[in-house]
Every structure is written in structure tokens, then in C-alpha cells.
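I am going through a labmate's work and have reached the protein record below. What it holds is a sequence and that sequence's fold in C-alpha cell form. Please read both lines and tell me whether the C-alpha cells look consistent with the sequence. Do not assume that whoever made the record got everything right. Thanks in advance; the entry in question is below.
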Amino acid sequence: MKFDILTLFPGMFAGPFDESIIKRAKEKQLIDISLHNIRDWATDRHHTVDDSPYGGGAGMVMKPEPLAACIESIKALQPLSTVVLTSPQGRRLTHRVATELTGRAGLIIICGRYEGIDERIRTLYAEDDISLGDFVLSGGEIAAMALVDSVSRLITGVLGSEDSAGTDSFGDGLLEYPHYTRPPEFKDLAVPETLLSGNHELIRKWRRKEALRKTTLLRPDLIAEIDLTREDRKMLKEIEQELVDGS
């Protein structure tokens, strides 16, 4: 998958994109990431990319001309890629949204700065608008990193195990069950006996129930959004009774 990132600070991406899973995905040519410095498309000698807002107010606004020229140059080479803005006004990035975006030929991600971008860029070019949540960052670079990472890990071959993405939190609509590794006891806390039993069916049921328990306690809003099986409903009743009993 092709990612084109438009930014005023390409250096910010050097660490996150040159380590771990993203690095290996690039080396295996499963993803391709290109960074584009928006200043390179400014035509004046100072490479100006911002100006004061019409109507007054604090801060500066990113000018439309450099952004438009940059977008158009990339679109000429990647006509099927989707232009995405990163802004607090966008739809929230969720597992479902990331999964949807894996179906795109590529993403052209615009990292906003200052007070934002000239609205005419959104009107003329933007095909999607993504937000990390109801808060404001200094720029869209961190959001772009999160977007690339969350989409990339859903691409076949990127993760070491094909099952990993499906068992992550939100992969099946629930928060992920607790994980344990050696040693079997740490600071008087023991690994649940079920996980040491070797009984795969008991382990499956334990993990499902604990995922339901964690989601019920931390994100009950998610329960209403998934299709519960008969086994799930039985487990939820057991969890409810256990919470009442204080166990």
C-alpha cells in the first residue's frame, strides 16, 4: 500500500517509520511511505506556507497554493489514492475505520499545522477527514503516524502472525483479554490455572470471558455494538453475578 505524507516537518517521521513493524513492512515492500515537504511547493523565495487569517484572529493558516500544488503532483502519479486530512473535525480513527482504509489503493495524508489549513483545500481535494479524538495536537504528524501504523498492521503479511490483528483489542469488537508469560508466579500473583492446563477449549472460553469482562468494566458502550453469541450472553450473566458477589 502506498502512503504519501504531506508535512512541514518530515524529520519527525524518521524514528517511528524506521523501527519495528513499519520498518519490516517497508523492507518486505508491503507498504511504501513517501514524505513530501510542503515548503518545496512554495514559489516565493522565502518558501512561505502560511499567512494571517481573513477576518482576524490569533495564529496563522496554511496557504492553499503550496498544498494544492503538492497534492496535484502526487495525484498525477497516484490517481487512485485517497486524500485524507488529519484534523480534530474528522471522523474518529477506530479499528473499523482502519480496516476500511486498507481497501484504498493508497492514502495521501495532509498534516495540518498552525490554526489549520485553508478551507478551500478541504473543499477541493479532501476525500476523508480523520481525527484521533476530541483533543488538539500541535500538528497532524502524530495523527499521520498513528494512521499509517493502524492501517499497515491490518495488511496481510505485515504482522508476524496472521492471527495477531484479529485478536488485538477491537479486532472482534471487544477489548483484548489479559496476557501472561513466564514466570508462573510474580510478586505473589499467579498465572490463572486455566492458562496452564493445556486444555485449548477451556483456554478459549477463559479468554473470551475475560475479554467480555474487561470490555464490560472499561468500555461497556462496545458491548452494544457487537453480535453476541448465546455463549457470550451466558458469560455476561456469569460476569454480572460475579461482580455482584464481589468475586
